[in-house]
Structure formats: structure tokens, C-alpha cells
Amino acid sequence: MPLDATLRLLLLSSIWGASFMFMRIAAPQLGVFSTAFFRVFLGGLGLAAILMVLRVRWDFRGKWWRSLLIGTVSSGIPFAMFCIAAQFLPAGYSAMFNSATPLLGVVIGASFFHEAMTRDRLIGVLLGLCGVAVLLQTGPVAMNRELLFGALACLAASACYGFQGFLVRDWITAKGGLDSRLLAVGTQIGATLMLAPMMLGEVWSMPSLDAWRDIEAWSAMLALGVVCTSLAYLLFFRLMEDLGPVKPLTVTMLVPPFGVLWGALFLDEEVTWAHLIGGVLIAGALWLILFKTPAPRIAAAEEP
């Protein structure tokens, strides 16, 4: 892998690893749906501004509505689920659960899209589940209802990412394709439209908006939208162009260490051997799925 691509991959991993820390800061203050809404809203604005600077022609080639629907699956629901999880889980936990995306992509592909379930993929799924179980049972957070609820929210988000890859393949790629930058903007607009009524309902039900005066929460929110969404999308799609659809998926293995690192450095989250053991099991599972066998074509679904 070229040095410049390797550096961009590490930068992208660190950015997406930091997104879980920012959600952990913003969601308790601004609200679950408000955090998810402003992330996609700011991310969409940033991408739209970049496309205007680059003078990209806004021609969705009849795929506008498909882009919006994909956005609800690829960004709207997952971001809301991760913000829910941020109420209960350390940032490092959410980052590690996010790495289950390719595992769930294999199961989804075999169950709904006639993808082959090979022996290596099956072993990879089982190994990944063992990694998740280790983290849940022996991690620094006590096993209780809140931990389980947060874990299920993360896995629901990862399942959405798995579905999104196949939807992009069937609705976009198989229909003649679309400029990936336009697809990125379209998905953020779709997610914004989906989350807007939920955000308004959440704000309406709040007894007070005093928490919205928190400068730290809005700073984290700005980082989520501009850096972890707009900039991260551009980095990821550039890697896709340079390296093809498989190698950029190594970001899935690099995000969890960064998520754990940022949580430990800036949120004083505890790091234990469970993180290492669970991470090694999940990394082994990803290697079996992404490199030992043909990838399940979920390359566009890895944003946390």
C-alpha cells in the first residue's frame, strides 16, 4: 500500500474512532436525536459546500429518491442508535461493537441477498461473536440491562451499515452508478429529513434547554458534523478510488483501537485485558471475512 494511502487510512481511522468520543460528549447534553440530526445536517452542509467549490454537477441520474432512502439506512438510523448507546457505553465499547459491521454484513448477505456463506466466513462470524461476548462479560463495565441495551443499539447500527452496502449495490451500482460524492450528499440529506421530526419531538418534550448552552457539547457536535462526516467521507471515497473496494475496509480493524485510545485519554475510560482479547478475536474474524475470502461488498457502509 502506498505511503500516502497508508497515512490517509490511519487519519480516517483516528477520525472515526474519535466520533464515538464526540457522541459520548454531545448526546447526554443535546439529546439523542438532536445529536444525530445535527451530525448529518452539518455533514451534509459541509459536503454540499465542498461539491460547490469543486463545481461538481448535481445530476443524480434519476437516483435521487434512492439516495435519500439509502441515507435513512446508512446514516439516519445508525447515528441515532450510536447516540443511544453513548448514553450507556464508554466510547471504546461502541467503537469495538462497530467493527461487527462486516460480520453482520456476511449474515445479511447470506440471509437476504443470496450471498455465499463459506466456511471461512462462518468461522469468522462465530469468532467475532466470541469477541463481542468477551467484551460484554469481562469488560470494565458491569454486565447489566443498560450495557445490554447499549450493545444491542450498536449492533442494530452495524446491521444497518451491512444492509446499506447491498442497497447501494442493487439500487445504485447495478443501475448505472452515481458519483460517490453526490451519493454522500444525498444520503446525508435523506438522513436529515428522517431525523428532523424526531429531533423536534425530542426538543419539544425537554423541560429545559439549559443543557444546550454547553460549549463543550456544541464543539463536539461541530467536530462530528464537519470532521467525522464531511472530511471522513472525502477521505474514504479517495481511498476507494486509489485502493479499490477491499483494502479500505481495513479501517474497520483500526477504528476500535483509536476509539479505545481517545476514550482513555480524554474521557478517563478504563482499559482492560478484555479490550485486547475481544479486539484480537474480532480482528481475526475480520481477516477471515475480508481477506481470506471475497469481501461481502459492503465497502460503503463503514462510517460510525
Automatic annotation (TrEMBL):
Domain of life: Bacteria
GO cellular component: membrane
Membrane topology: Multi-pass membrane protein
Main localization (coarse): membrane
Coiled-coil stretches: none
Cellular location(s): Membrane
Domain EamA residue range list: 9-136, 149-290
Gene3D superfamilies registered for this protein in UniProt: 1.10.3730.20
Swiss-Prot/TrEMBL keywords: Membrane, Transmembrane, Transmembrane helix
Record-annotated membrane-spanning stretches: 7-27, 33-56, 68-89, 95-113, 122-141, 147-168, 180-200, 220-237, 249-267, 273-291
Classification via PANTHER family: EAMA DOMAIN-CONTAINING PROTEIN, INNER MEMBRANE TRANSPORTER
Family under the similarity heading: Belongs to the EamA transporter family.
Name the record gives this protein: Threonine/homoserine efflux transporter RhtA
